[in-house]
């Protein structure tokens, strides 16, 4: 197995399944990795793809895969304003717009019609399988029920309950466990708030200045003056824009991430206001559903400042904003 997975804390059961698949003691044709965001599902999924593609240590397919040029490998992820995986990712449509993301992907059914050109198998990876829309999920079922001898499917999700039950039941479902406290712990207040899993902590460290910007606005909530909600909401949207630039992501993805961080802040800093964490979670859902983010942020901060947060606030953990 590659060093990425072997060095990642946690994932004990997932590593055992990878070993069984590599040794041929398991003959699953479709595997669904699930766990919390940042638990390592993507790393495990890519390692399994490599296992299924590469014949041996000197196989050039391995180098091609590592360079992102393996012709017998395809992957799809949620795209577009609705952040969905649409039918066109699974089943060919009569026309797909030139230059679009969906035009760049060979649909799964079409991809599996021919045998692999160079690799042991053809492998199709579906990230965030909970975002398959109903048409796409139903189209996927036929391949899962009647697999091609040369075709392998890998799915990942951080929302197992939202994956269609008929899809789940046709896959080998593998939990990606978080590490124990002895194996790993976040470092510093910002990671404890925004990066409670290894993968999320890596992201927070890589874009520390942008996450500091989010935290700085959230820490103003307990002392915000009456009528200050709209100003805070504007500053938080501005911090989300800086996060988008730092992560080179879409504005909507950064807004959703900022709302995830807000929910984490409310859970930790306002334990007496569980309604605020729930409101942030609902705001996150609305933004992912392509609602105008401005009113969503305004409403959340209006609710947060309508009644003072009485939790301990930004000094509840020793070390200040990002100290340990």
What does this structure look like?
By secondary structure, this protein is an alpha/beta fold. The protein has two domains: 3-175, Rossmann fold (3-Layer(aba) Sandwich), CATH 3.40.50.300; 188-306, no CATH class. Helices cover 48% and strands 8% of the residues. It has a five-stranded parallel beta sheet, covered by helices on one side. Strand 3 (122-126), helix 7 (134-145) and strand 4 (151-157) form a beta-alpha-beta unit. Helix 12 crosses helix 13, helix 12 crosses helix 15 (293-306) and helix 14 (274-288) runs antiparallel to helix 15 (293-306). Residues 318-324 have low confidence and may be disordered.
Structural class: alpha/beta
Let me know the largest β-sheet: 5 strands, parallel
CATH superfamily of the largest domain: P-loop containing nucleotide triphosphate hydrolases
Give the helix level as a range of percent: 40-55%
Order of helices and strands: HHEHHEHHEHEHEHHHHHHH
What is the first-to-last residue Cα distance? 33 Å
Give the CATH level 1 class of the largest domain. Answer: Alpha Beta
SSE diagram, text form:
Elements: H1 3-7, H2 12-23, E1 30-34, H3 41-53, H4 60-66, E2 73-76, H5 101-104, H6 108-111, E3 122-126, H7 134-145, E4 151-157, H8 165-168, E5 172-175, H9 188-194, H10 198-206, H11 208-218, H12 229-247, H13 251-269, H14 274-288, H15 293-306
Parallel strand pairs: 1-4, 1-5, 2-3, 3-4
Helix pairs in contact: 2-3, 9-10, 11-12, 12-13, 12-15, 13-14, 14-15
């Amino acid at each position: 197995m590659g060093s990425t997975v072997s060095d990642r804390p946690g994932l004990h059961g997932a590593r055992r399944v990878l070993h069984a698949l590599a040794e041929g003691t398991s003959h699953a044709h479709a595997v669904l990795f699930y766990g919390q965001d940042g638990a390592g599902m993507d790393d495990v999924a890519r390692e399994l793809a490599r296992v299924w593609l590469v014949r041996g240590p000197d196989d050039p397919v391995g180098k091609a895969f590592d360079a992102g040029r393996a012709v017998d490998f395809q992957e799809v992820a949620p795209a577009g304003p609705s952040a969905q995986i649409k039918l066109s990712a699974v089943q060919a449509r009569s026309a797909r717009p030139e230059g679009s993301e969906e035009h760049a992907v060979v649909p799964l059914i079409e991809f599996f019609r021919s045998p692999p050109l160079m690799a042991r198998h053809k492998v199709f990876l579906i990230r965030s399988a909970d975002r398959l829309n109903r048409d796409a999920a139903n189209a996927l079922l036929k391949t899962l029920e009647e697999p091609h001898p040369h075709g392998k499917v890998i799915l990942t999700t951080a929302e197992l309950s939202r994956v269609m039950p008929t899809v789940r039941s046709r896959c080998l479902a593998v939990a990606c466990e978080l590490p124990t406290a002895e194996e790993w712990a976040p470092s510093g207040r910002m990671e404890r708030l925004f990066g409670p899993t290894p993968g999320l902590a890596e992201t927070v460290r890589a874009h520390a200045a942008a996450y500091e910007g989010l935290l700085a606005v959230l820490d103003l909530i307990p002392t915000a003056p009456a009528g200050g909600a709209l100003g805070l909401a504007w500053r938080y949207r501005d911090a989300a824009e800086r996060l988008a630039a730092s992560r080179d992501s879409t504005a909507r993805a950064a807004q959703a991430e900022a709302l995830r961080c807000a929910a984490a802040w409310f859970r930790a800093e306002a334990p007496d206001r569980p309604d605020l964490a729930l409101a942030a979670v609902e705001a996150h859902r609305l933004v992912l559903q392509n609602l105008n983010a401005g009113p969503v942020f305004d409403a959340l901060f209006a609710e947060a400042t309508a009644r003072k947060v009485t939790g301990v606030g930004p000094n509840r953990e020793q070390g200040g904003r990002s100290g340990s």
